[in-house]
Amino acid sequence: MYSDIDEIQSDLRLGKSVVDIVNHYLLRIEQQKHLNAFVEVFEESARTSAHEIDQKIKAGTAGPLAGLVLGIKDNICYKGHQVSASSQILQNFESLYTATCLQRLIDQDAIVIGRLNCDEFAMGSSNEKSFYGPVRNVHNEAYVPGGSSGGSAVAVAAGLCTAALGSDTGGSVRQPASWTDTIGFKPTYGRISRYGLIAYASSFDQIGVFSQSIKDTQTLYEIMAGKDAMDATSSSLEVQEAPITQKSLRFGVIKDYLDHPQLDPEVHAHLVELISRLEQAGHTITYFDFPYLAYVVPVYYVLTTAEASSNLSRFDGVHFGYRSNDAFGTDEVYTKSRSEGFGEEVKRRIITGTFVLSNEQYEAYYAKGQKVRRLLQDHTRHMFEKADCLIMPTTPSTAFKIGEVKDPITMYLQDIYTVHANLTGNPAISLPFAFHTNGLPFGVQLMTDNFNESLLFHASAIVKNSMV
Ligand code: GLN
């Protein structure tokens, strides 16, 4: 099993071909089929690209990602291949273009091996809400891997690809990373183009990376980041690449997050221990009051459902994908196609979003939610005046059993520590941290100021070195 690009490239130097590497992954995917991580394997196009890259290596023209085998979440467009957001409503839909960030990776010779299972339209925290059925956690197959990018997390954890792309609207990269012992990174809002990502909540969505190495995560990030004319919300700020050498960092700890009653005692104890190790290693620790944890999840669900209800209105039985077989007339085509094509959770969110945007409720929910979002952004900015990097749990606990969580609110509360970074736009990462006595892994989360990804990666290396 390969754990990073360096290992693959050293095998290439020893005489292996990129075709060998692709075959290695294809075999593993076949052996681990029961995990249900892949929705579709792009065997033919992956082999064709591998041949081409082998030629480039011979000619000395291969890009820095030669040998990297990538999986993509089933909501990222790749021209000539199907994409469905793991929903019935997009069955048989083929991408008409390639997402900008994916194209940038392909231009550096990454190979796309297939599309990965996820919760329908990236709505969920367990990957149980997919049209293709649940994904299984490789650490215990009776358990969920987290979501919504559960397929991406499991594919990386099980060595079915070198790295994978996911999308993170409220934690969908970091939360499954925490539950599968992988690295999950979400950039600053606007840092990576969203062109070619099927929209869920546009002011929250960001494409992120799963991998086994901080260095690979940073490499992929730097290639993908930067202005894209096709996404007006992509930032034109230069992508900062200069290495950071600062030895001692100012870590910030939000007391309210650490002391939250929902935080598993073992996760709490490990975190307290890590913080004291960082302090012993010469870093400063500052404790903050941030008494908003009770509000982040409700505000997140008011604002994201509002955006989702608007974004998903394009799936109407006419423009894309699924159309009901027994619908007569315009109204029925819309209502029946949508009622049959969307799953229960997606419908719940469209209805909630339509409600919070309605004339009567707008001020009470949507407008108020925006105000709270601003408050959270202001307070977060203030914390970064006193700290370089916030350290906190990624998830309140470890993964649960498939089928165990039935109530949507309990499911939504899995995201209490991850939605913060999406509400405020900050970059954040979940690093593999420890194993619980129940045998399951959990991560630790770091967050830095907006557009300070370099510092986030630097802090990640420091934190990793302080782990036992
Ligand atoms: N679990 C959250 C939700 O269901 C986050 C999803 C995501 O980040 N795409 O909305």
Number of DSSP strand runs: 11
Helix content: 40-55%
Helix/strand order, N-terminal first: HHEHEHEHEHEEHEHHEHHHHEHHEEH
Count of helical regions: 16
What is the CATH level 1 assignment of one domain? Alpha Beta
CATH topology of one domain: Amidase signature (AS) enzymes
CATH superfamily of one domain: Amidase signature (AS) domain
Question: Which structural class is indicated by helix and strand composition?
Answer: alpha/beta
Mean pLDDT: 97
The multimeric state of the shown protein is single chain
Instruction: Report, as a whole number of angstroms, the end-to-end distance.
Output: 24 Å
Query: What characteristic shape results from the CA principal axes?
Result: globular
Which small-molecule species are bound to the chains here? glutamine
Description:
The protein has 468 residues and is of the alpha/beta class. The chain has a domain at 5-224: Alpha-Beta Complex (Amidase signature (AS) enzymes). It is built from 16 helices and eleven strands. The protein has helices at 5-13, 18-31, 43-59, 100-107, 150-157, 174-180, 214-224, 255-258, 265-280, 293-311, 329-341, 344-356, 363-386, 408-412, 419-424, 453-466, and strands at residues 38-41, 69-73, 111-116, 163-168, 183-186, 206-211, 250-254, 284-288, 389-393, 428-435, 441-448. Strands 1-3-2-4-6-5-10-11-9-7-8 form an eleven-stranded mixed beta sheet, with helices on both faces. Strand 2 (69-73), helix 4 and strand 3 form a beta-alpha-beta unit. Helix 2 (18-31) runs antiparallel to helix 3, helix 10 packs across helix 12 and helix 10 (293-311) packs across helix 13. The radius of gyration is 21 Å and the shape is globular. The mean pLDDT is 97. Bound molecules: glutamine. Glutamine binds at residues 122-125, 148, 167-172, 200, 304, 415.
